[in-house]
Write a structure and sequence with these properties.
Elements: E1 2-6, H1 10-18, E2 24-26, H2 29-33, H3 40-50, E3 55-58, H4 64-74, E4 81-86, H5 89-100, E5 105-110, H6 113-121, E6 126-129, H7 131-136, H8 141-153, E7 160-163, H9 169-178, E8 182-185, H10 187-194, H11 197-217
Parallel strand pairs: 1-2, 1-8, 2-3, 3-4, 4-5, 5-6, 6-7, 7-8
Helix pairs in contact: 4-5, 6-8, 8-9
């Protein structure tokens, strides 16, 4: 499974990249807005300098032709830019055209298996089911992910399943158990994957005992 960071914060991306655990980055208009008044294209370019894997840049329109225009501009930023289009009729039309032009598309805001099938048939390089947002309304995001993986495994579609809207490590681990290709997560969830109280306690004990040993030798 590949790990993507769902953030536009350069410091967070650098920290994950330094560990060799950032295989890519997903951004969206909300995440970009959190970084203040940045130039969108310049900011995406900076992210692409930090990670060599796919960096998703989202279109910001409901109009198909405008999506195409934006997508064609985005891929000029860096060779690893992936265009993000919404799972709407217009978004899938744009996905089909961009795919035919050799441009990779991450189809986002997927909330049903039927939508995922349509995205794959439209030529999506990635499908992003939003687990956490389904959980928020009392549905089961992991069940949707399981259904999509099962359906995709029946065919030879090249669409990668990108588990998105992950709220905690359990989402990540269960997505890995199901065989999702990618998990994209906020930096907070990424940090939680590395932490365990017994690890911290064990390290604290080891260092304390070593100090005692060193003091006795002195």
């Amino acid at each position: 499974m590949k790990f993507f960071l769902d953030t536009a914060n350069l410091d967070e991306i650098r920290q994950a990249a330094a560990l060799g655990l950032a295989d890519g980055v997903t951004t969206n208009p909300t995440l970009i807005s959190k970084e203040g008044k940045v130039d969108f294209k310049e900011h995406i370019a900076e992210i692409c300098k930090i990670v060599s894997g796919p960096v998703s840049a989202e279109t910001t329109t409901n109009d198909r032709d405008e999506m195409l225009k934006q997508g064609r501009e985005y891929v000029k930023i860096a060779p690893n830019v992936v265009v993000k289009c919404p799972l709407t009729l217009e978004g899938l039309e744009a996905t089909r055209i961009l795919n035919d032009e050799g441009i990779k598309v991450n189809v986002t805001l997927c909330f049903s298996s039927a939508q995922a099938v349509c995205a794959a048939k439209a030529g999506a390089s990635f499908i992003s089911p939003f687990l956490g947002r389904l959980d928020d309304i009392g549905d089961n995001g992991l069940r949707l992910l399981e259904e999509i993986i099962e359906i995709y495994d029946n065919y030879e579609w090249k669409t990668e399943v990108l588990a998105a809207s992950l709220r905690h490590p359990i989402h990540v681990i269960e997505a890995a158990r199901m065989g999702a290709d990618i998990a994209t997560m906020p930096f907070k969830v990424f940090q939680q994957l590395l932490k365990h109280p017994l690890t911290d306690k064990g390290q604290e004990t080891f260092l304390a005992d070593w100090k005692k040993t060193s003091a006795a030798k002195a």
